[in-house]
Design a protein that fits this description.
Blueprint: H1 3-8, H2 10-20, H3 27-39, H4 42-58, E1 60-61, E2 68-69, H5 75-78, E3 83-90, H6 96-102, E4 107-111, H7 129-136, E5 143-146, H8 152-165, E6 171-174, H9 190-198, E7 201-202
Parallel strand pairs: 3-4, 3-5, 5-6
Antiparallel strand pairs: 1-2, 6-7
Helix pairs in contact: 2-3, 6-9
């Protein structure tokens, strides 16, 4: 199905355009997804549309940790059994899941929603850093664990956070180097993450 012909079929052209806006979806992938949806049953497509709508209408960000939730504050922040003296800082909500699966960490989290990346136009003001600093003002937090991804952007973000947090007198640690450089936290296996948590080192 040629691109010129698709352009004359407005609903398909619009769908391809919208899919192409998604991260990691190129023009060819957008066309394949659009054609797949065209061939899918009405119930399948309706289910997908309803799921997308539900995400926008029902999922919010926790006012405390900035993680995604349906109830504010989120279940982790409300849990009195967790160690509220520790905050593990991650880049995105998906990074919380593998850390929780290790069952080796019982503190709280803070989600930055990105990492400092000048090439992508993301600076410190684009991240949820002010919210993190506000959480440290009360003096109840004893340790901040920097669990940004082990790549250039993650390291730059960790260094920036260290400079901001250090004057507050809070202990700052970084996940151990068991994580391969260049990888994303969400793809790390549970054993590697557990060792990285146990072997975390104080940042000075």
């Amino acid at each position: 199905m040629g691109a010129d012909f698709i352009a004359t079929v407005q609903p398909m052209a619009r769908l391809i355009e919208e899919l192409h806006r998604l991260p990691g979806i190129g023009p060819k992938s957008a066309q394949r997804l659009a054609y797949f949806l065209l061939q899918s049953s009405a119930d399948q497509v309706r289910g997908l549309a309803e799921a997308i709508t539900a995400v926008k209408e029902k999922v919010i960000f926790c006012s405390v940790c900035q993680n995604i939730t349906q109830v504010d504050p989120c279940a982790i922040c409300r849990d009195e059994q967790r160690d509220h003296s520790k905050i593990c800082v991650v880049e995105k909500p998906l990074d919380v899941l593998p850390l929780e699966r290790t069952r080796g960490y019982n503190g709280l989290y803070h989600v930055l929603h990105g990492a400092i990346s000048p090439m992508d136009g993301l600076g410190p003001d684009d991240l949820r850093i002010k919210e993190l600093l506000a959480r440290l003002e009360g003096g109840c937090v004893e340790e901040v664990i920097l669990a940004t991804n082990p790549n250039l952007e993650g390291e730059a973000t960790a260094m920036y956070l260290q400079k901001l947090v250090a004057p507050l007198g809070v202990k700052i640690t970084r996940l151990a180097r068991g994580l391969p450089f260049g990888s994303d936290l969400e793809y790390a296996d549970e054993v590697t993450l557990t060792r990285a948590l146990e072997g975390r080192q104080e940042v000075t």
